[in-house]
Amino acid sequence: xRYLVIGSGGREHAIAWRLMQDGSAKEVYAAPGNGGxxxxxxxxIAESDFAGIAAFCADKKIDMVIVGPEAPxxxxxxxxxxxQKIPVFGPAKKAALLEGSKLFAKRIMEKYGIxxxxxxxxxxxLPLLEYIQQEKNFPLVIKLDGLAAGKxxxxxxxxxxxxxxxxxxxxxxxGVFVEEFIGGEEASVLCISDGxxxxxxxxxxxxxxxxxxxxxxxxxxxxxxxxxxxxxAERLAQVSEKIxxxxxxxMRNEGIPFRGILYAGLMVSGDEIKVLEYxxxxxxxxxxxxxxxMNGKLGDLFQAALSGTLDRTDLSFKKNMQAITVVIASGGYxxxxxxxxxxxxxxxxxxxxxxxxxxxxxxxxxxxTNGGRVLDITAVxxxxxxxxxxxxxxxxxxxxxxxxxxxxxxYRALK
Length: 415
Ligand code: AMP
Ligand code: GLY
Hints:
Helices cover 29% and strands 27% of the residues. It is of the alpha+beta class. The structure holds adenosine monophosphate and glycine.
């Protein structure tokens, strides 16, 4: 099989790596890819250039396209390629609204009894400001409806902070809502769906804040591990039965079957598990810790989802193994940061460690930084402690100007 992976992050490198490593693929191309993809297999085509992607598929005789990030999914790449009879894994445009519109996601959850935080809708900035003027309970959560690359959620601790957030981020006519703040521990549970059946993956936990101890601004994710012990076997069954399956059933009932990866961002508090958000794709960096633990062929799983046969497909994960990934980011991220810094030492980590590239660029035989999250240093061990030690023992061998990483990835599970 010849695959084309769309996207340029660590997640996409991990998808390509897994497809090659487990024997699913003869060749894996990536568009636009990153420095981790061999130059001959990188195509300089933007994620938004659907026609360019289709032409590339015809040229290289691609058997299946895997769409990594949300933007092309929400933009309708799957519908476009399907029309051209190119097999493609990922949800159609209407189904991708589960991530593309937080209000749509809320409506689905409320209609189908999927546990989530209570919310109130507002038609734009002024009515929201009026509401905030008389609100007494903080923190509360303010969410913008559309895709906002992680910047559309505010958790003000006071009325002043709320007003500041609204004035800075909420347009006059924005779709926006207020949600109750719920406490607890976050986890990501992903499943693959063929529109009817689901198969859940091992639960993972991301670390969204930039600094140790979960302080500072939100990022795309600074590290992850799996399985996350907060999601016990019992809770995983609960998430499958009460959240993932009803979501897929609800979407089918709406006439918009969901075929792809459904990611539930969860808040766990005792017996209660609520959905904070849906994503319609693999998590980044969650994928980087799920794939190393997976048995079987990733390509077979994609194929089964496309042919509607996940009910006859087995998926298992390595028993008593843990995976961890630590993101090395550019100094300044998630704010402004430099690009083009020379990266040294990637070849100085041993075969025990998987280095997934994210924001990197290869020029001849050298690697340079090319994004906020640069590399994902990943290891597997019999215990999380062992996997974590493997990563942190070698991570300083890799360096570039301004390199930054969190030193506490996995801390909740190791407490
Ligand atoms: P979202 O993009 O909806 O996942 O929100 C981004 C982050 O905001 C989540 O990962 C949580 O840390 C936090 N968050 C979102 N909704 C809530 C909520 N209702 N209560 C507490 N924290 C939340
Ligand atoms: N790691 C969070 C996400 O992929 O959305």
